[in-house]
């Protein structure tokens, strides 16, 4: 299993980690299989979306912040209820097929760590499992 350490710079941020995951797949030597991604945090997630235009990630960040505002009538004493709820929406894991030694992502797709309570140091676990022979 590969462990990616990612430093985020803002409270809400979608950080493109596609290149790091692609390197892990290439270094594994796996030709066909599955790449599992898991973020072990309750205020961060992982998603797949367009990464060709950085405005998409910026728009997603803004939409999350408008949909679930930082300040609200929340009961959680730490002051980050919105971060927990945003992580519930994105989820903490993704699976991507590996074909011909590469991630089988669509033309415009990329993998994003979704930070909702930053800036912080985050972890992304990458587990690459080859297809059985």
Task: For this entry, give a set of tags.
single chain; 133 residues; alpha+beta; 5-stranded antiparallel sheet; 3-stranded antiparallel sheet; elongated
For the biggest β-sheet, the strand order reads: 1-8-3-5-6
Overall mean confidence score, pLDDT? 97
Q: Secondary-structure element order, as H and E?
A: EEHEEHHEEEE
Span between N and C termini? 20 Å
Report the major sheet. Answer: 5 strands, antiparallel
User: How much strand?
Assistant: 35-45%
Structural write-up:
This protein has 133 residues and is of the alpha+beta class. The protein is built from three helices and eight strands, in the order ββαββααββββ. It has helices at residues 18-28, 54-67, 81-90; strands spanning 2-7, 13-16, 33-38, 44-50, 93-99, 102-103, 109-115, 121-130. It has a five-stranded antiparallel β-sheet, covered by helices on one side. A three-stranded antiparallel β-sheet has the order 2-7-4, sandwiched between helices. A hairpin with a 2-residue loop joins β5 (93-99) and β6. The protein is elongated, with a radius of gyration of 16 Å. The model has no long low-confidence stretch (mean pLDDT 97).
Task: Please render the helix and strand layout as text.
Blueprint: E1 2-7, E2 13-16, H1 18-28, E3 33-38, E4 44-50, H2 54-67, H3 81-90, E5 93-99, E6 102-103, E7 109-115, E8 121-130
